[in-house]
């Protein structure tokens, strides 16, 4: 129990005043929100004293784990030196410059798409709005203003602003607020478990799923398409890991029609897939890379877009003033924390750990879940993982929506002291990259516990 927090009082104030994101407001009037009081390493604690292993790294962002003093020190020092100044009107600040140069040095060169420039925001959503504006500006400047359409994927998540939610392919979000905005359209996701045909291999499916992009380009009209946006691995949609054949075929198609490729790496960058950037894992060549979340390990809001040379050259040489920006673009404190976080990740070799031994151990242990009677299609990509909870494994029968199997399992995870997320009948996890083998063993023990309880409840 955290003696300094009066849980009932905070919960009452919470439901009286705080409109939570992605929450049915009425739910919190009854049972009250869980009050998270503090955190350390891979654990968070609630105000009633429960210790919970944070298998989701907050919201896919606390890659370096909790309690990292050097990140707090970097913020404190920068606040005492220069807490804020804007980067409009031909002014700049040292941490923003240093971080932009650092990111440019970390992003591997991919020919004419090499990344030398960064546009800053404070979140993934804002960054994707910036992408829409930059992409349309790029084609305007090239004398092709009719190229406005951005193609995305169903079940993608690209944020909650009007453009972000429109780029995303979440039907529940589109149903609220007249979305998508014009000139955004969607294709299917490369989800082999759900969309593979009988007798079709994963690799055949990957090529077929990429082909939906070509079909869409042809139906929209190739001269009207500005860009394709996608996450390397679809995260919030349920950790949809594409077959290896998918990205090379996507690359072939975007190259064939000359359209821009936007890699939304708000989840997949900064070590999550075992590389600094997610596109390295799959070997494709984006023009723009969206980042946020783990650039600061979530300690302070910061986002942005890595702008490849193909786009940057046109914006810089032909663009004149770009009428777009945020008060907090290049915020000195956020950038100072970003620099400290990248330094920490380099020193502790977090991307390399995920790429190497520790990632392999996680993959091996997670794949063992396929032996559990409730589980199929358990797989990892770096430090993201997903599995399907299945009703009858032998017959291949899935749970009905009203069984709410994911929510049942999620509740048992919480009860067992583990955060895992449910997306329909999929359970997903994205733990901090600092995990030891012993931590992975403990996480697996908790997963098995929650699965056994779920199995017993639904039998
Ligand atoms: N893009 C992706 C791939 C995301 O996963 C998210 C958030 O989860 C966003 C964009 C939106 O980021 P933010 O919540 O910082 O606006």
TrEMBL record:
The lineage of its organism: Bacteria, Pseudomonadati, Pseudomonadota, Betaproteobacteria, Burkholderiales. It comes from the Bacteria. Gene3D superfamilies: Aspartate Aminotransferase, domain 1, Type I PLP-dependent aspartate aminotransferase-like (Major domain). Keywords: Aminotransferase, Pyridoxal phosphate, Transferase. It holds the Pfam family Aminotran_3. Its cofactor is pyridoxal 5'-phosphate. InterPro entries: Aminotrans_3, Aminotrans_3_PPA_site, PyrdxlP-dep_Trfase, PyrdxlP-dep_Trfase_major, PyrdxlP-dep_Trfase_small. Belongs to the class-III pyridoxal-phosphate-dependent aminotransferase family. The keyword Transferase applies. GO terms for molecular function: transaminase activity. This is Aspartate aminotransferase family protein. The keyword Phosphoprotein does not apply.
């Amino acid at each position: 129990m955290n003696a300094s927090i009066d849980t009932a009082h905070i919960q009452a104030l919470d439901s009286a005043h705080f409109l939570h994101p992605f929450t049915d407001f009425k739910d919190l009037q009854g049972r009250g929100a869980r009050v998270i009081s503090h955190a350390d390493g891979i654990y968070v604690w609630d105000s009633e004293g429960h210790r919970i292993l944070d298998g989701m790294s907050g919201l896919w962002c606390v890659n370096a784990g909790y309690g990292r003093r050097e990140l707090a020190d970097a913020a404190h020092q920068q606040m005492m030196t220069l807490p804020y100044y804007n980067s409009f009107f031909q002014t700049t600040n040292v941490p923003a410059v240093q971080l932009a140069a650092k990111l440019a040095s970390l992003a591997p060169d991919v020919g004419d798409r090499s990344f030398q420039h960064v546009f800053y925001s404070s979140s993934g959503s804002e960054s994707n709005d910036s992408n829409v504006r930059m992409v349309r500006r790029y084609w305007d400047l090239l004398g092709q203003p009719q190229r406005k359409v951005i193609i995305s994927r169903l079940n993608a998540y690209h944020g909650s602003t009007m453009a972000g939610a429109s780029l995303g392919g979440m039907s529940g979000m589109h149903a609220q607020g007249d979305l998508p905005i014009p000139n955004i359209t969607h294709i299917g996701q490369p989800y082999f478990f759900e969309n593979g045909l009988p007798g079709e291999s994963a690799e055949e499916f990957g090529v077929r799923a990429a082909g939906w992009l070509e079909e869409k380009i042809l139906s929209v009209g190739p001269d009207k398409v500005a860009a394709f946006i996608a996450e390397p691995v679809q995260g919030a949609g349920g950790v949809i890991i594409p077959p290896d054949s998918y990205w090379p075929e996507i690359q072939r198609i975007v190259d064939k029609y000359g359209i821009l490729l936007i890699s939304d790496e708000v989840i997949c960058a900064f070590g999550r897939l075992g590389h600094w950037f997610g596109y390295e894992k799959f070997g494709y060549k984006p023009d723009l890379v969206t980042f946020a979340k783990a650039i600061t390990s979530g300690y302070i809001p910061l986002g942005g877009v890595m702008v490849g040379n193909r786009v940057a050259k046109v914006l810089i040489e032909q663009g004149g003033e770009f009428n777009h920006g945020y008060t907090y673009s290049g915020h000195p404190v956020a950038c100072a924390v970003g620099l400290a976080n990248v330094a920490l990740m380099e020193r502790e070799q977090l991307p390399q750990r995920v790429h190497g031994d520790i990632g392999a151990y996680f993959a091996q242990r997670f794949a063992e879940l396929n032996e559990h009677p409730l589980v199929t299609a358990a797989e990892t990509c770096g430090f993201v993982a997903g599995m399907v909870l299945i009703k009858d494994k032998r017959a291949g029968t899935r749970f009905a929506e009203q069984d709410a199997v994911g929510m049942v399992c999620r509740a048992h995870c919480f009860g067992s002291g583990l955060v895992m997320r449910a997306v329909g009948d999929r359970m997903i996890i994205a733990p901090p990259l600092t995990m030891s083998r012993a931590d992975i063993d403990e996480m697996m023990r908790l997963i098995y516990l929650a699965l056994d309880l779920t199995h017993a409840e639904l039998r």
